[in-house]
Specification:
Elements lengths: L1 H10 L1 E2 L5 E2 L1 H5 L4 H14 L9 E5 L2 H10 L7 E4 L11 E8 L4 E8 L8 E9 L3 H12 L3 E11 L4 H7 L4 E11 L2 E4 L2
Parallel strand pairs: 3-4, 3-7, 7-8, 8-9
Antiparallel strand pairs: 1-2, 5-6, 9-10
The structure holds guanosine-5'-monophosphate (5GP).
Length: about 190
């Protein structure tokens, strides 16, 4: 998605060879015009399965806004987001997965209340970044526990060199990434053609 790549080049900061900071439009401040285009682009990419999507599944915090804009283009299906803390209100049963947080470098438990994910739900995963694949694999694990189905994963920025995309594809999950970063070197961001 060229407009997204241009924005990453313009406003993204290569914090290291591993981490890209895009706070000004994706992770701290949200550019709603761009998010709307992102939602439309996910619809184009997944148009063949769009009518089958029952729910969009994501993980807090940054996934939520992207997922919400995307849902508009998928018949406004519900957006279910995994929570990283166990709220006191989550008193009934929940699905659970342990994931290594890329940004916090620590294990985090993610949870989805059983009320919001049902047997047979066909889900599209949407997230801001795909790095080592931990967050997405956690969602896949939760969906499996719920006997729900994953139809695919839509990712805003995939850092290909960290291998998460391969892990998902090896599991037979279709991954559509709007910008694929091949490497980050000397502060420069290189995209896959
Ligand atoms: P993974 O679980 O695939 O290793 O990492 C994905 C999660 O970590 C995303 O949900 C995202 O929040 C965060 N993340 C991974 N890489 C980056 C990055 O380069 N920049 C930012 N801002 N977040 C990242």
């Amino acid at each position: 998605m060229q407009i997204l790549k241009n924005r990453i080049i313009q406003d993204g900061v290569a914090v290291s060879t591993e981490i890209l900071k895009v706070d000004s439009f994706l992770n701290h401040q949200v550019d709603v015009t761009l998010f709307d285009l992102i939602g439309a682009e996910f619809r184009t990419r997944f148009d063949d399965i769009a009518k089958n999507v029952d729910k969009i599944l994501t993980i807090e915090a940054s996934g939520i806004a992207v997922a919400a804009f995307t849902a508009k283009y998928f018949n406004s299906v519900p957006v279910v987001f995994a929570k990283k803390d166990k709220p006191t209100t989550m008193t009934d049963g929940y699905y659970f997965a342990e994931v290594m947080s890329f940004t916090k470098r620590a294990m985090t438990a993610i949870r989805v209340d059983k009320k919001f994910l049902k047997t047979g739900d066909r889900c599209l995963i949407i997230d801001d970044f795909l790095a080592h694949g931990q967050a997405a694999l956690g969602l896949v694990h939760i969906a499996k526990d719920a006997d729900a189905e994953i139809l695919g994963a839509g990712i805003v920025i995939e850092k290909e060199f960290q291998g998460g995309g391969d892990k998902l594809r090896e599991k037979g999950i279709r991954v559509e990434s709007l910008a694929v970063v091949e490497k980050i070197e000397n502060g420069e961001i290189f995209f896959k053609a």
